[in-house]
């Protein structure tokens, strides 16, 4: 089965790799974009058999891709969507998986992409109308109700960034302190917001809530 696919992935190397992989499997990538707005536009223009999207997208690098996937499924009962992620974005994952017409939906952790046969199978099953959920995603969604220190979800670098945020450091100051670029700082902060389950709002508000979570610990 050959599919027309719209791909959304902000990391250029990962995007190029996915295009090569999908086309090597016999599919056609009709558009490969780097942000959620372009994803929505490409899906409207090309009416693909399948949309494959990352969760984190510019400008916030939080869950823009996942929210775009939810919007696509809400607006078109026939669009099949496969979401790829480094980890489970709990805020919108359950909404994504709500049945929508006969269109397939998948939520796959990026580690699975390395198994080409498994990835190829998931792509075809989702395009055919099935629901495919990564077993690790299921476990994480079911585990949300357990009482866990939310800061344990953060990587050591993300805890460093949050600690500097708690000291009142700006993004620029954090970047200078940790010797990383502005884009890397923005990605770390976006990850912090997502892993602490801070719903999309203005970033200043979420920044305060993240710092309060850190200080309460």
UniProtKB/TrEMBL annotation:
Gene Ontology BP annotations: phosphorelay signal transduction system; regulation of DNA-templated transcription
Residues bearing the modification 4-aspartylphosphate: 54
A GO MF term: DNA binding
UniProt cross-references to CDD domains, sorted A to Z: LuxR_C_like, REC_NarL-like
Matches recorded under Gene3D superfamilies: 3.40.50.2300
Domain Response regulatory: residue ranges: 4-125
UniProt entry keywords in alphabetical sequence: DNA-binding, Phosphoprotein, Transcription, Transcription regulation
DNA-binding as UniProt keyword: yes
Residue stretches making up the HTH luxR-type domain: 147-217
Protein name: DNA-binding response regulator
Source organism of the structure: Virgisporangium aliadipatigenens
């Amino acid at each position: 089965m050959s599919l027309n696919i719209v791909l959304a992935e902000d990391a250029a190397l990962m995007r190029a790799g996915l295009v090569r992989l999908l086309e090597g499997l016999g599919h056609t990538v009709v558009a490969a974009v780097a942000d959620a707005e372009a994803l929505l536009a490409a899906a409207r223009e090309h009416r693909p058999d399948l949309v494959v999207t990352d969760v984190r997208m510019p400008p916030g690098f939080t869950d823009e891709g996942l929210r775009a996937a939810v919007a696509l499924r809400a607006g078109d009962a026939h669009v099949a969507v496969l979401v790829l992620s480094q980890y489970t974005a709990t805020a919108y994952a359950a909404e994504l998986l709500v049945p929508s017409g006969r269109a397939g939906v998948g939520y796959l952790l990026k580690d699975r992409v390395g198994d080409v046969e498994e990835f190829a199978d998931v792509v075809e099953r989702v395009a055919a109308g099935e629901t495919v959920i990564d077993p690790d995603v299921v476990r994480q969604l079911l585990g949300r109700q357990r009482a866990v220190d939310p800061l344990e979800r953060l990587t050591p670098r993300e805890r460093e960034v949050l600690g500097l945020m708690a000291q009142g450091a700006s993004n620029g100051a954090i970047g200078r302190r940790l010797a990383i670029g502005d884009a890397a700082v923005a990605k770390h902060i976006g990850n912090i917001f997502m892993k602490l389950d801070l719903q999309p709002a203005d970033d200043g508000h979420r920044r305060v809530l993240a710092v309060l979570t850190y200080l309460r610990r």
